[in-house]
Amino acid sequence: MARFDGQFLQEIKGKLDVELLGVASLEKSHSEELTERATALLPGTKSVVVLGKEIFREVVALAGPSKGVGEAAYGDLLGPHDDYLNGRLTRAVHELASIFQRDGYGSLPLPARGCPLDERFIMAVFSYRHAAEMAGLGTIGRHSLLITPEYGPRVRLACVLTEAPLGGSSAVHEDYCTGCDVCIRECPAYAIQVPGESEAYSINKHVCRAYRRAGLYCSVCMKACDEVLG
Questions:
Q1: Pairing between strand 107-110 and 117-118?
Q2: How far apart are CA 132 and CA 142, in angstroms?
Q3: Virtual torsion, Cα 226, 130, 181, 209, nearest 10 deg
Q4: What does the angle CA 155 – CA 166 – CA 31 come to, to the nearest 5 degrees?
Q5: pLDDT tens for residues 46-56?
Q6: What is the pTM of this model?
Q7: How much of the chain is in helix, strand and coil states, percent to nearest 5?
Q8: Highest mean pLDDT (candidates 31-35, 63-67, 224-228)
Q9: What pLDDT, on the 0 to 100 scale, is given for residue 16?
Q10: CA angle, corner 146, sides to 66 and 111, nearest 5?
Q11: Is the pLDDT of residue 125 over 80?
């Protein structure tokens, strides 16, 4: 196990070409739901490794709520940018899973895009953002996006479930969401709502998806949040 210590993870982070890497230990987890979802996919899961790449601020700055018929939309550049980041992340989780596999630890790479979705609730079978929060990479804001200290909400994520007992990353004690509600005010679909007292966020996923399926690379909430955080 010595080869999978903190030094190994820092070294592999550079080799995998990712900006963020954190570990959520299920043995130390207080989230029964996250543990159940991980072990449903890989019964012997002991650790979840979360990898992240930065979404360029220059691309997010072009996001807009709508466009006229036939009009060029600068925000459409987010789609190809996402495709590139998702491809790099998916390759990275497969490479990391292969390393664990060679040492005899069963591992399951979860791609940046294409994780199975329960269409009834628009809910992925495993939440990368909640795993990332547990891994100490950031906290979830009112727009339901992960907010990191390095890049704000501008991150894409992918995960590796593994039987390797890696130990967890340091927990985040600071809430990076300022509660300014700019994401709620700026959402063009009115899908984001003020959360209840015991909620971190409240979002109508069906409305959000319907708006995005109208052919718009929205991400206005990400842009607004990033501008506030600077």
A1: unpaired
A2: 16
A3: 90
A4: 65
A5: 999 999 999 99
A6: 0.93
A7: 35, 15, 45
A8: 224-228
A9: 96
A10: 90
A11: yes
Phi/psi at 48 (nearest 5 deg)? -120, 120
Q: What are the sequence ranges of the domains in the chain?
A: 2-229
Paired tokens of 16: 């995998």
**Residue ranges in the chain assigned as alpha helix (H):** 6-15, 32-41, 57-60, 78-102, 128-134, 182-186, 205-212, 220-229
In total, the chain counts a number of residues equal to 230
Kindly state the tokens that stand for 7: 């030094």
Q: What's the CA gap between 165 and 27, in Å, rounded?
A: 8
Provide the 8-state DSSP code for 152: B
What are 133's two structure tokens? 């929060």
Residue whose C-alpha is closest to residue 161's, from 84, 103, 94, 113: 94
Strands in 47-54's sheet, in edge-to-edge order, are: 20-25, 47-54, 155-162, 107-110
d(C-alpha 148, C-alpha 172), whole Å: 10
Cα 38 to Cα 112: distance, rounded to the nearest angstrom: 16
Share of the chain above pLDDT 90, in %: 73
Distance in angstroms (rounded) separating the CA atoms of residues 34 and 188 = 31
